[in-house]
Amino acid sequence: MATSNYISKVTIVGAGGNVGSFIAKALLKTSKHIVTAITRVDSQSTLPQGMVVKRVDYNKPETLVEALRGQEALVITISGHAPIQDTEEKLVRAAGEAGVPWISLPNEWSPDSANEGMVRDIFLFGMKVATRKLIEELGKSSYIALVTGFWYEYSLGIPNNYGFDFANRTVKFYGDGETKISTSTWPQVARAVAGLLSLPIKPEGSNKEACLESLRNKVVYINSFTISQRDMLASVLRLTGTKEDDWTITKEPAQQIFSTAAKQLKEGKKEGFANFLYSRIFFPDGCGDFEHNKGTLNSMLDLPEEDIDEATKIAIGRQKAQATGEH
User: In what order do the strands lie in the sheet with 248-252?
Assistant: First the structure.
């Protein structure tokens, strides 16, 4: 348990992954936390310097409990290729047994998993709800679930996600391309996590909301941008020096793309997964825009306004590197 009004001991699962490495570095940069990485015995992941490393065997729950004992917060960032629900359940139960008071970030990193329509339509989001419910039922830890939207530079860098193929100058619009969605960069997510875990546990000063207790067992939100595909295209045009006429733009209703992709998945065609996942946030019901529908913690956590062109430049570079086999 925390002996002061601040968390100092934080464990991350997935510290060598996409968002996990950014989070680890941001926490270390605060100089307020001792940051531990939990990793599998046979993992070859490269971890940020300065972390304590504890190796575990997920088939031996006692190794998880031992690794988590004495920790004050657990951050879970599991790869989408891992058995997410099973792994999360093992971690949550181990955290409870080890006495970890805060599971500050169960594996969210997604659009709004508190939106009933999204949870109903996207099976992955149901897993997130189940994890939150399990934490509450066990009653040994508390959670703060951080919704970030899809990762901007990752999603823009893959043609089937936000719809952009930079090499061939094509873009697929979900609908008319005007639907706004909230999305975050990896550095912004990392700053949010570091900021969140640097808040006092109980209120201090005049702002009674800026503490972990006020966020206990809640779904909260942060973002970098709330933008449409047309906004993304405008950024791409500025960076590439091209005009809209230089691009081939196709349009298809998001609901139609979603329906087709759902049918493909039922038939065992995995290539429909990206369209299934991404088309849902572009439905014209506003489900993808949590900034305006739910509000964000950006101000509380003192998150900066970012330059969309800088983030778009990274996405273009990532897609080019993937196409050429560079890393």
Answer: 164-165, 170-174, 248-252
Q: For residue 290, which of 219, 235, 234, 229 has the smallest C-alpha distance?
A: 219
As given in the structure block, the two tokens for residue 79 are 């790869």
User: How many C-beta neighbours within 10 Å does residue 12 have?
Assistant: 27
Q: What backbone torsions phi and psi does residue 163 show, to the nearest 5 degrees? A: 95, 5
* Segment 291-318, tens digit of pLDDT: 999 999 999 999 999 999 999 999 999 9
Query: Do the strands 225-227 and 181-183 form a parallel or antiparallel pair, or are they unpaired?
Result: antiparallel
Q: How far is CA 234 from the centre of its chain?
A: 25
In angstroms, the CA 242 to CA 22 distance is 32
Residues across the chain: 327
User: For the chain, what is the mean pLDDT?
Assistant: 93
- The pLDDT confidence band at residue 50, using thresholds 50, 70 and 90, is very high
Query: For 229-243, b where at least 16 C-beta lie within 10 A, e where not — what string?
Result: bbbbbbbbeebeeee
